[in-house]
Amino acid sequence: MRIIINSVPKAGTHLAASVLSEMGLTKRDDVGLTGIQRRRSIKDAALDFIWPRKVNLDLDESSKSTSTLRCVPQLELIENNEFAVEHLPYSKALEQTLMRHNVRLICIIRDPRAVLWSWYHHMLKHADYQFHEEMNDPSLSLEQKLMIPILGRRKSSDIVLASLADRYRRFLPWKNSSIALWIKFEHLIGPHGGGDVELQQETVAKIAAFLGVEIDSYTIATAIFGRNAWTFRAGRIDEWQSAIPASIIKYVDNEFSELYSDIGYAPAN
Q1: Tell me: the pLDDT tens digits for 178-233?
Q2: What is the C-alpha to C-alpha distance for residues 222 and 64, in angstroms, rounded to an integer?
Q3: 124 near 132, Cβ under 8 Å?
Q4: Which one of 17, 121, 193, 239 is least enclosed by Cβ atoms within 10 Å?
Q5: pLDDT per residue over 126-166, tens digit each?
Q6: What whole-number percentage of the chain has pLDDT above 90?
Q7: pLDDT for 159-182, tens place per residue?
Q8: Is residue 248 part of a domain?
């Protein structure tokens, strides 16, 4: 079985990867399906939802199929009991290709407000990322900076950032895929990150069962999520609640009003 950990960017793939590594699986860093798609033309932009060279969200299935075929050589790099980490929106063509190549997905979802806050800090710190300058622009308020990933933005004639809600919409259909396990970041993080220990162990056990791995979920959780074994940027899954301005939270809640129930979250009180 080949395994791909899949998520919207900044939703917790590193956390899930640590779990799989502790289970004895090997991570491959040379697959790069997401990166390959970023370098393709408008026909091949369907698999990229961060900064594609061109954007057309209404690609027909034949165009998506053409794009997906280019992933096959990379998929074959993944050996049995190995995994890769990707950010792949759903398409039927991709799902069928993964199925034919005995790939199973662990799809990790995270509260979009937490993803927003994590994305902001990631761009703030990394000078080689596309929106680093904007996140460090002293002339922009925090609200203005956060609206960039919420609404999406054309960085240049050939680099586009899709909106936050659109990234979730394109990821959501994986939830009903027969080859995917759908888990929440908040259930996996454990008590040191503001989560629940029982939900953490249950989620680790679900991953193990999905992969056919026999493990002690308590031992795995302890090894991965011990106080000294895993570091968090701020350590709490609810940090966004006090960090993001209320006006921005309200805006995100409005943008996700029709998505929250499907992805398993709720508007702020």
Answers
A1: 999 999 999 998 887 888 889 999 999 999 999 998 888 878 777 776 544 444 55
A2: 42
A3: yes
A4: 121
A5: 888 778 899 999 999 999 999 999 998 876 655 677 899 99
A6: 46
A7: 677 899 999 998 999 999 999 999
A8: no
Whole-angstrom distance, CA of residue 33 vs CA of residue 202: 30
Q: Write down the number of H helices and E strands in the chain.
A: 15, 7
The yes-or-no verdict on residue 39 having pLDDT over 60 is no
| Total tally of structural domains belonging to the chain | 1
- Residue at 78: amino acid letter: I
Coarse DSSP helix, strand, coil percentages of the chain, rounded to the nearest 5 percent: 50, 10, 40
The CATH number given to whatever domain includes residue 32 is: 3.40.50
Residue 218 · residue 203 · CB < 8 Å? no
Counting Cα atoms < 13 Å in the Cβ hemisphere of 49 gives 24
Residue 147 domain flag: no
Both tokens of 185, joined, read: 């970041």
> What stretch of H or E contains 243?
helix 239-243
Q: Mean pLDDT for the chain?
A: 81
- Judge whether 101 and 72 are in contact, CB under 8 Å: yes
Tally the C-alpha atoms within 13 A of residue 260's C-alpha that lie toward its C-beta.
11
Nearest CA-CA partner of 190 in 182, 180, 202 = 202
Domain hosting 91: range is 2-111+160-234
Mean pLDDT along residues 79-102:
89
Query: What are the tokens at 106?
Result: 């662990």
